[in-house]
Amino acid sequence: MEAPVGFLVVSLLLSCFATTCYGVTFSSLQRTLEVTASPKEGQVLKAGDANITVTWGLNRTIQAGTDSAYKTVKVKLCYAPISQKDRSWRKTVDEMKKDKTCLVKIVAKPYTASNNSFTWTVERDIPTGTYFVRAYAFNAHDEEVAFGQTTNDKKETNLFKIQAITGRHASLDIASVCFSAFSIVALAGFFYMEKSKGKASQQK
Ligand SMILES: *[C@@H]1O[C@H](CO)[C@@H](O)[C@H](O)[C@H]1NC(C)=O
Ligand SMILES: *[C@@H]1O[C@H](CO)[C@@H](O)[C@H](O)[C@H]1NC(C)=O
Ligand SMILES: *[C@@H]1O[C@H](CO)[C@@H](O)[C@H](O)[C@H]1NC(C)=O
């Protein structure tokens, strides 16, 4: 009696891995895009102020037609390994859906093989860290099929830094203190009203 159940579980698991449960992996992507970004190696950019100009296109040494399935490109800002250390929420995972290396979208555009460029002002809420830029090419099913990045495969070269807006933490702290004070007052008010309601219904 047990064998069929075991078989069912195994085949369910297998079909799960083969289709829905396991998506595109980074290691399966071809590095066919050439990506450059304006920051120089080691440059420090100020969040909310500095601009990054990214250019991308098909690497000219790649065989023509390789990009026939490419439909869109997403350019992203990505954490270098040094800024991922001890931060599980920025972890690199081979399965693309779970990967947290590149959390910030710079731009998404229809794919064209050359002359692509975009200038992005580093958003105000980007945390201090060491970064690089990566572009993904997607097919018509919105699955990653290729990539390119401004650093080498080990993500060691040509990294730049972003410095968060100073004073942000101070204002956030004040905001959260105000918010807690507001919550306590609101909560107290709520209990007071509930209590008086209770009294009112007892009097009836
Ligand atoms: C373009 O592709 C060639 C061959 O794969 C590679 O050696 C070269 O580094 C690539 N260029 C860029 C800028 O990625
Ligand atoms: C970045 O670009 C914006 C908009 O074009 C401009 O106002 C700003 O001065 C630029 N920042 C720097 C540091 O050049
Ligand atoms: C790319 O830009 C260059 C210079 O502006 C131009 O000569 C070339 O024709 C452009 N290529 C494409 C495919 O648009």
Automatic annotation (TrEMBL):
Residues 1-23 form the signal peptide. This is High-affinity nitrate transporter. Belongs to the NAR2 family. Keywords: Cell membrane, Membrane, Nitrate assimilation, Signal, Transmembrane, Transmembrane helix. The lineage of its organism: Eukaryota, Viridiplantae, Streptophyta, Embryophyta, Tracheophyta. One of its GO terms (cellular component) is plasma membrane. Involved in nitrate transport. One of its GO terms (biological process) is nitrate assimilation. The chain crosses the membrane at residues 174-193. PANTHER family: HIGH-AFFINITY NITRATE TRANSPORTER 3.1 (PTHR34806:SF1), HIGH-AFFINITY NITRATE TRANSPORTER 3.2 (PTHR34806). GO terms for molecular function: nitrate transmembrane transporter activity.
